[in-house]
Amino acid sequence: MSTFFPMNNGDAVYSYSRNSQIQRELLDGAKEMMEESIIKNLDIKNILSSSNKFHITDLGCSIGPNTFTSMQHVVQVVKEKYHDNNLEFQVFFNDHVTNDFNTLFRSLPVDRSYYASGVPGSFHGRLFPSRSIHFAHCSCAIHWLSKIPKELLDKNSPAWNKGLIHYAGASNVEIVNAYVVQFEKDMEMFFNARAEEIVQGGMMVLVSPFSGWDSLNFFGSSLMDLVNEGMLDESLVDSFNVPIYFPSPDDITKVVEKNGCFSIEKIELTYPQSKLVDEADAKTFIINLRATLEGLFTNHFGSKIAEEAFTRTILKNEEISAWMQMNYKTCQLFIALKRK
Amino acid sequence: MSTFFPMNNGDAVYSYSRNSQIQRELLDGAKEMMEESIIKNLDIKNILSSSNKFHITDLGCSIGPNTFTSMQHVVQVVKEKYHDNNLEFQVFFNDHVTNDFNTLFRSLPVDRSYYASGVPGSFHGRLFPSRSIHFAHCSCAIHWLSKIPKELLDKNSPAWNKGLIHYAGASNVEIVNAYVVQFEKDMEMFFNARAEEIVQGGMMVLVSPFSGWDSLNFFGSSLMDLVNEGMLDESLVDSFNVPIYFPSPDDITKVVEKNGCFSIEKIELTYPQSKLVDEADAKTFIINLRATLEGLFTNHFGSKIAEEAFTRTILKNEEISAWMQMNYKTCQLFIALKRK
């Protein structure tokens, strides 16, 4: 069973295209490191040999606008490094087949300096011909698991996640372990596919959020409120788990070493400044999470309960602001890799 | 002003995906010729040199299923010709940015033997990096003009197309000339772009319908019925022209020679057997045209009048059956070109 549900599509009030500030802050934080990594590690003359075509992909790109900013940035940095007017860029925007590619295509920047194309499919499998990608980028995406490990749903397993919707806040270590094992399986497939697709000397940059998602507990407690009021069956909460795991530098190092085809050029946890935290803007923060998670909630609970849970979480506004000021720090993991 | 309106999207009763039999009959008719042309003209070892990646594009692909049939056929023929298990195929599905790529991607055959991607944009301009395409296919698409020549809308011009919606049936030669001039301008841009994008020795196959579209007059006369009943202002009919021109072999030869970068390997008018004609299945025929033209009609007349015009045309069912048996013959123009 796949657990993938796309970000909210279109451009309406709770759409991802209008509500992706958290993801943008991560990208802004990664911008400089990506630039440095490209300048330091990319040897374009070697990887292109006689060709003048540079192929970039954004894996798990969603519908914009963040993906356009990143792709234009990669193109810009490579152009500035090489001053080669003959270089031509082709960008492959990838996401699941259920992603709203129509919205993505219709919002492509008119003044882009690359040829654009969309590639539907899971990045846990093959997407491109072998040795055809020179630079792969993946931001805010590898933390989505391909599925929820079945132990979490098994009442007789020590990993049964009763009354919670995520490993954050779970007291039982078996629960987080089940998430880790699934993450490692997914990343094994991810790296196997990329090892085939990326040319020798080609690069891959991964950016992943690292913290802050204990805020998922606020949604969890709204759901439990509905259970206590008799509006929702508790077993529905017990059987719901958000398929997101936030990898640590060690998790990544382990999967990269197991794969064996990439060298880690840089791996770093950073704490970008967050406007949301400065202003403890809980409402924006929650709506942002909603744009990301609504499909997942609606699929499991139906739209009425999902809507009610989001509305109630917004009412916890002050409590969440206080929590943000005390505990929340935007934290991201940046990884630059090179195909050996 | 662009005149492009996509085929009816989704998969509902009047959608293009369910109503594209005419287009499929053309493709079936072209199948054998395409196979012969590939076998005779494609020198894959030369055009790929040391690479094993073969890039195909379907220009103006719409939303399927016809495009999947053609692309699989091209892949199959190339595979059978070369028996090279290392060959990898990447197919670029192209259509206007308003095309329903979500439906296209969601209906991609699961057992396809190529990597799929979508490329949004007009084929009258550049879509791909230079020398990056090995085989371009374009079926039932070049006859769509990029815009309606303005003379057709000018009351003082000899090309004013009063009371009609197409050059078919127009008595004034200036009207058809205006269509021809626009077609030549469009094809100049089309061939200039493809000359940059297709590798030396690469191929392009064009298939275009050549007749049968005088049936557009049935829609025109339904519109004039509405005018006569006072439901529609005549000036709205006078200012409406279907932006479709059916090129002759001479038209194509002229634009190819002007461009100078392609050799014509085969150019042929054929008359494939049509199930629609055998059964004089006027209803299917009209619904098929509707799936293709509804967006265009709705944009100009509004959905109420467009709907009314289509309903009335279906009522002309018997008249159209009789006309089909007397006059209609599926006729297509097949062109195989090679990049010099």
Provide structural commentary:
Two copies of one chain form a homodimer. Chain A is an alpha/beta fold. Helix content of chain A is 44%, strand content 17%. Chain A contains twelve helices and seven strands. Chain A has helices at 21-41, 44-48, 66-82, 101-106, 173-197, 216-228, 234-238, 249-259, 275-278, 282-301, 303-315, 317-327, and strands at residues 53-59, 88-95, 115-120, 133-139, 198-209, 262-270, 332-339. A seven-stranded mixed beta sheet of chain A has the order 3-2-1-4-5-7-6, sandwiched between helices. In chain A, helix 5 packs across helix 8 and helix 6 crosses helix 11 (303-315). Chain A starts with 20 loop residues before the first helix and ends with a strand. The model of chain A has no long low-confidence stretch (mean pLDDT 90). At the A-B interface, strand 2, helix 4 and strand 3 of A face strand 2, helix 4 and strand 3 of B.
